[in-house]
Design a protein that fits this description.
Elements (H helix, E strand, L loop, with lengths): L2 H30 L6 H16 L2 H4 L4 H14 L20 H4 L3 H28 L10 E6 H10 L8 E2 L4 E5 L4 H8 L4 H8 L2 E5 L11 E2 L4 E3 L6 E2 L5 E3 L8 E7 L2 E10 L20
Antiparallel strand pairs: 1-10, 2-3, 3-4, 4-9, 5-6, 6-7, 7-8, 9-10
The chain binds FE2/S2 (inorganic) cluster.
Length: 292
Protein backbone atom coordinates (compact mmCIF):
# COMPACT_ATOMS: atom_id res chain seq x y z
CA UNK A 1 0.00 0.00 0.00
CA UNK A 2 1.06 3.35 -0.67
CA UNK A 3 1.90 5.95 1.98
CA UNK A 4 -1.08 7.97 0.97
CA UNK A 5 -3.38 5.08 1.53
CA UNK A 6 -1.92 4.37 4.98
CA UNK A 7 -2.39 7.97 6.04
CA UNK A 8 -5.89 7.98 4.63
CA UNK A 9 -6.77 5.00 6.81
CA UNK A 10 -4.74 5.88 9.87
CA UNK A 11 -5.93 9.46 10.35
CA UNK A 12 -9.66 8.66 10.58
CA UNK A 13 -8.86 5.74 12.90
CA UNK A 14 -6.86 8.00 15.21
CA UNK A 15 -9.56 10.62 15.20
CA UNK A 16 -12.21 8.05 16.03
CA UNK A 17 -10.11 6.59 18.83
CA UNK A 18 -9.50 10.06 20.31
CA UNK A 19 -13.19 10.82 20.26
CA UNK A 20 -13.94 7.51 21.98
CA UNK A 21 -11.37 8.22 24.73
CA UNK A 22 -12.76 11.69 25.31
CA UNK A 23 -16.31 10.45 25.44
CA UNK A 24 -15.45 7.73 27.96
CA UNK A 25 -13.63 10.23 30.17
CA UNK A 26 -16.55 12.65 30.27
CA UNK A 27 -18.96 9.88 31.11
CA UNK A 28 -16.83 8.84 34.05
CA UNK A 29 -16.79 12.36 35.54
CA UNK A 30 -20.52 12.74 35.20
CA UNK A 31 -21.02 9.47 36.97
CA UNK A 32 -19.11 10.74 40.07
CA UNK A 33 -21.26 14.03 40.21
CA UNK A 34 -18.29 16.15 41.07
CA UNK A 35 -18.08 18.07 37.93
CA UNK A 36 -14.90 19.93 37.46
CA UNK A 37 -13.50 20.21 40.95
CA UNK A 38 -10.16 21.57 41.88
CA UNK A 39 -7.59 19.49 43.46
CA UNK A 40 -7.95 21.23 46.78
CA UNK A 41 -11.68 20.65 46.77
CA UNK A 42 -11.30 17.06 46.01
CA UNK A 43 -8.78 16.71 48.84
CA UNK A 44 -11.18 18.33 51.32
CA UNK A 45 -13.98 16.10 50.14
CA UNK A 46 -11.81 13.19 50.76
CA UNK A 47 -11.12 14.46 54.30
CA UNK A 48 -14.85 14.91 54.90
CA UNK A 49 -15.50 11.47 53.70
CA UNK A 50 -12.84 10.17 56.04
CA UNK A 51 -14.24 12.12 59.00
CA UNK A 52 -17.74 10.88 58.27
CA UNK A 53 -16.57 7.43 58.27
CA UNK A 54 -14.87 8.15 61.65
CA UNK A 55 -18.18 9.47 63.16
CA UNK A 56 -17.35 13.19 63.37
CA UNK A 57 -20.55 15.06 62.31
CA UNK A 58 -18.99 18.51 62.33
CA UNK A 59 -16.19 17.34 60.24
CA UNK A 60 -18.66 15.58 57.98
CA UNK A 61 -20.28 18.90 57.08
CA UNK A 62 -17.04 20.78 56.85
CA UNK A 63 -17.65 22.99 59.96
CA UNK A 64 -14.92 23.14 62.50
CA UNK A 65 -15.59 23.43 66.23
CA UNK A 66 -13.96 26.85 66.27
CA UNK A 67 -16.28 28.14 63.57
CA UNK A 68 -19.26 26.73 65.38
CA UNK A 69 -18.29 28.49 68.60
CA UNK A 70 -17.81 31.75 66.71
CA UNK A 71 -21.20 31.45 65.12
CA UNK A 72 -22.85 30.74 68.46
CA UNK A 73 -21.15 33.70 70.14
CA UNK A 74 -22.27 36.05 67.34
CA UNK A 75 -25.84 34.80 67.69
CA UNK A 76 -25.74 35.37 71.41
CA UNK A 77 -24.47 38.92 70.93
CA UNK A 78 -27.31 39.73 68.54
CA UNK A 79 -29.92 38.37 70.85
CA UNK A 80 -31.71 41.26 72.78
CA UNK A 81 -30.63 41.66 76.36
CA UNK A 82 -33.10 40.12 78.76
CA UNK A 83 -35.28 42.61 80.71
CA UNK A 84 -34.73 42.48 84.42
CA UNK A 85 -38.03 41.80 86.18
CA UNK A 86 -38.11 42.34 89.88
CA UNK A 87 -39.51 39.56 91.86
CA UNK A 88 -42.97 40.48 93.31
CA UNK A 89 -43.03 41.27 96.98
CA UNK A 90 -45.14 39.08 99.05
CA UNK A 91 -47.84 40.87 101.16
CA UNK A 92 -47.02 41.14 104.78
CA UNK A 93 -49.38 40.82 107.69
CA UNK A 94 -50.34 44.22 109.28
CA UNK A 95 -49.05 44.83 112.73
CA UNK A 96 -49.92 47.87 114.86
CA UNK A 97 -47.03 50.32 115.21
CA UNK A 98 -45.44 50.62 118.61
CA UNK A 99 -46.90 53.17 121.01
CA UNK A 100 -43.67 55.16 120.98
CA UNK A 101 -44.26 55.94 117.29
CA UNK A 102 -48.01 56.57 117.43
CA UNK A 103 -47.92 59.26 120.13
CA UNK A 104 -51.71 59.48 120.63
CA UNK A 105 -53.92 56.48 120.18
CA UNK A 106 -57.42 56.70 118.80
CA UNK A 107 -58.88 56.04 122.21
CA UNK A 108 -56.82 58.83 123.74
CA UNK A 109 -57.82 61.20 120.95
CA UNK A 110 -61.54 60.51 121.42
CA UNK A 111 -61.29 60.83 125.19
CA UNK A 112 -59.47 64.12 125.01
CA UNK A 113 -61.85 65.48 122.37
CA UNK A 114 -64.84 64.63 124.54
CA UNK A 115 -63.27 66.34 127.53
CA UNK A 116 -62.45 69.43 125.50
CA UNK A 117 -65.98 69.64 124.08
CA UNK A 118 -67.50 69.34 127.53
CA UNK A 119 -65.11 71.94 128.92
CA UNK A 120 -65.91 74.32 126.06
CA UNK A 121 -69.65 73.89 126.56
CA UNK A 122 -69.42 74.42 130.28
CA UNK A 123 -67.18 77.44 129.81
CA UNK A 124 -69.60 79.02 127.37
CA UNK A 125 -72.53 78.37 129.67
CA UNK A 126 -70.69 79.84 132.63
CA UNK A 127 -69.68 82.90 130.65
CA UNK A 128 -73.30 83.45 129.62
CA UNK A 129 -74.46 83.09 133.22
CA UNK A 130 -71.85 85.53 134.46
CA UNK A 131 -72.76 88.04 131.77
CA UNK A 132 -76.43 87.68 132.70
CA UNK A 133 -75.79 88.17 136.41
CA UNK A 134 -73.18 90.90 135.99
CA UNK A 135 -74.41 94.23 137.39
CA UNK A 136 -75.60 96.68 134.79
CA UNK A 137 -73.13 99.38 133.90
CA UNK A 138 -73.48 102.69 135.62
CA UNK A 139 -72.77 106.07 134.16
CA UNK A 140 -73.81 105.28 130.57
CA UNK A 141 -77.00 105.12 128.60
CA UNK A 142 -79.29 102.51 130.11
CA UNK A 143 -78.52 103.62 133.63
CA UNK A 144 -78.83 106.70 135.77
CA UNK A 145 -76.81 109.31 133.92
CA UNK A 146 -75.44 112.47 135.44
CA UNK A 147 -75.68 115.24 132.89
CA UNK A 148 -74.23 118.07 134.99
CA UNK A 149 -74.91 120.38 137.81
CA UNK A 150 -78.18 122.25 138.12
CA UNK A 151 -76.41 125.46 137.17
CA UNK A 152 -74.78 124.01 134.05
CA UNK A 153 -77.98 122.35 132.90
CA UNK A 154 -79.97 125.54 133.42
CA UNK A 155 -77.37 127.46 131.49
CA UNK A 156 -77.57 124.97 128.61
CA UNK A 157 -81.33 125.26 128.54
CA UNK A 158 -81.25 129.05 128.68
CA UNK A 159 -78.70 129.33 125.90
CA UNK A 160 -80.69 127.01 123.66
CA UNK A 161 -83.85 129.07 123.78
CA UNK A 162 -84.93 129.66 121.04
CA UNK A 163 -81.84 128.11 119.42
CA UNK A 164 -82.01 125.76 116.48
CA UNK A 165 -80.97 122.87 118.69
CA UNK A 166 -82.66 122.44 121.99
CA UNK A 167 -80.49 121.48 124.91
CA UNK A 168 -79.31 118.03 123.87
CA UNK A 169 -77.29 115.72 126.14
CA UNK A 170 -75.75 112.91 124.17
CA UNK A 171 -74.77 110.85 127.23
CA UNK A 172 -78.48 110.46 127.98
CA UNK A 173 -79.57 110.54 124.30
CA UNK A 174 -82.13 113.07 125.48
CA UNK A 175 -83.30 116.62 125.05
CA UNK A 176 -83.64 118.39 128.41
CA UNK A 177 -86.45 120.87 127.98
CA UNK A 178 -87.72 123.46 130.45
CA UNK A 179 -91.23 122.98 131.67
CA UNK A 180 -93.38 125.94 132.71
CA UNK A 181 -93.93 125.88 136.44
CA UNK A 182 -96.94 128.15 136.60
CA UNK A 183 -99.87 126.69 138.44
CA UNK A 184 -102.15 126.41 135.41
CA UNK A 185 -99.59 124.42 133.45
CA UNK A 186 -98.74 122.18 136.39
CA UNK A 187 -102.42 121.53 136.99
CA UNK A 188 -102.72 120.43 133.38
CA UNK A 189 -99.62 118.26 133.75
CA UNK A 190 -100.94 116.58 136.87
CA UNK A 191 -103.97 115.51 134.88
CA UNK A 192 -101.78 113.67 132.39
CA UNK A 193 -98.40 112.74 133.94
CA UNK A 194 -97.47 110.98 137.13
CA UNK A 195 -94.60 109.61 139.14
CA UNK A 196 -91.02 110.71 138.67
CA UNK A 197 -91.85 112.26 135.30
CA UNK A 198 -94.36 114.58 136.94
CA UNK A 199 -91.92 115.32 139.76
CA UNK A 200 -89.34 116.38 137.18
CA UNK A 201 -91.86 118.61 135.46
CA UNK A 202 -92.66 120.26 138.75
CA UNK A 203 -88.92 120.87 139.11
CA UNK A 204 -88.95 122.50 135.65
CA UNK A 205 -87.40 119.69 133.56
CA UNK A 206 -88.59 117.32 130.87
CA UNK A 207 -86.16 114.68 129.54
CA UNK A 208 -87.31 113.58 126.06
CA UNK A 209 -85.76 110.50 124.45
CA UNK A 210 -84.47 111.29 120.95
CA UNK A 211 -86.08 108.14 119.53
CA UNK A 212 -89.32 108.70 117.63
CA UNK A 213 -92.11 106.53 119.06
CA UNK A 214 -93.30 105.76 115.55
CA UNK A 215 -90.46 103.73 114.03
CA UNK A 216 -87.43 104.86 115.98
CA UNK A 217 -85.83 107.63 113.91
CA UNK A 218 -83.85 110.27 115.74
CA UNK A 219 -86.11 113.30 116.00
CA UNK A 220 -84.41 116.63 115.33
CA UNK A 221 -85.55 120.09 116.26
CA UNK A 222 -87.07 122.46 113.70
CA UNK A 223 -85.71 125.93 114.45
CA UNK A 224 -88.46 127.74 112.57
CA UNK A 225 -91.47 125.97 114.05
CA UNK A 226 -89.77 125.39 117.42
CA UNK A 227 -91.18 121.89 117.40
CA UNK A 228 -89.64 118.47 117.11
CA UNK A 229 -90.22 117.26 113.58
CA UNK A 230 -89.37 113.70 112.58
CA UNK A 231 -87.84 113.53 109.06
CA UNK A 232 -88.86 109.92 108.47
CA UNK A 233 -92.66 110.12 108.33
CA UNK A 234 -93.44 113.64 109.44
CA UNK A 235 -94.55 113.24 113.05
CA UNK A 236 -94.43 116.53 114.91
CA UNK A 237 -94.22 117.24 118.62
CA UNK A 238 -94.21 120.46 120.65
CA UNK A 239 -91.32 121.50 122.85
CA UNK A 240 -92.30 119.15 125.68
CA UNK A 241 -92.78 116.21 123.33
CA UNK A 242 -96.56 116.16 123.06
CA UNK A 243 -97.65 114.96 119.65
CA UNK A 244 -99.14 117.55 117.30
CA UNK A 245 -99.43 115.61 114.03
CA UNK A 246 -98.15 112.65 112.05
CA UNK A 247 -98.33 108.85 112.27
CA UNK A 248 -96.71 108.47 115.69
CA UNK A 249 -99.00 106.63 118.16
CA UNK A 250 -98.21 108.99 121.10
CA UNK A 251 -95.99 111.78 122.29
CA UNK A 252 -92.23 111.39 122.69
CA UNK A 253 -91.08 108.93 125.32
CA UNK A 254 -89.25 110.36 128.30
CA UNK A 255 -87.09 109.66 131.32
CA UNK A 256 -87.26 110.62 134.96
CA UNK A 257 -85.07 113.54 136.03
CA UNK A 258 -83.81 113.83 139.60
CA UNK A 259 -81.71 116.43 141.35
CA UNK A 260 -79.30 115.06 143.92
CA UNK A 261 -76.81 117.23 145.80
CA UNK A 262 -76.92 119.93 143.16
CA UNK A 263 -76.51 117.54 140.24
CA UNK A 264 -79.04 116.60 137.58
CA UNK A 265 -79.49 112.90 136.78
CA UNK A 266 -81.48 111.31 133.97
CA UNK A 267 -82.57 107.74 134.64
CA UNK A 268 -82.27 106.20 131.18
CA UNK A 269 -82.82 102.71 132.58
CA UNK A 270 -86.58 103.20 132.66
CA UNK A 271 -88.54 104.59 129.74
CA UNK A 272 -91.85 106.35 130.41
CA UNK A 273 -94.14 106.26 127.42
CA UNK A 274 -95.15 109.59 125.93
CA UNK A 275 -98.56 111.13 126.53
CA UNK A 276 -101.56 110.11 124.50
CA UNK A 277 -102.51 111.81 121.25
CA UNK A 278 -104.28 115.10 121.92
CA UNK A 279 -102.36 115.97 125.05
CA UNK A 280 -101.36 119.64 125.11
CA UNK A 281 -100.41 120.88 128.56
CA UNK A 282 -98.37 123.92 127.50
CA UNK A 283 -100.47 125.27 124.66
CA UNK A 284 -97.34 125.97 122.56
CA UNK A 285 -98.46 126.72 119.03
CA UNK A 286 -96.57 126.70 115.76
CA UNK A 287 -93.95 129.49 115.89
CA UNK A 288 -92.93 129.40 112.23
CA UNK A 289 -92.98 127.25 109.08
CA UNK A 290 -92.29 123.54 109.28
CA UNK A 291 -88.93 122.16 108.27
CA UNK A 292 -90.25 119.31 106.15
S1 LIG B 1 -90.20 107.40 112.69
FE1 LIG B 1 -90.78 109.35 113.19
S2 LIG B 1 -92.60 109.63 112.17
FE2 LIG B 1 -92.02 107.65 111.62
Amino acid sequence: MSTGTVLAVAIPVIVVLGAVVAFVSLRRRDATGLGYLSRETRRRDEQVTASAEAGDAAGAFGVSAQARDLERSVALERRPAPVAVAAPEMPQDWAPPPASQVGVTRRQFLNRSSVMLMATGLGTFNAAMIAFLWPRPTGGFGSKVKIGTVASVDEAIASSTPAVNFSYFSEAQSYIQPYPTDSATLDAAEAVYSGTVLDAMKAGYVALWQKCPHLGCKVPVCGSSQWFECPCHGSKYNRVGEKKSGPAPRGMDRFAVTIEEGNVFVNTGTVAQGPAIGTDTTGQGLEGPHCG
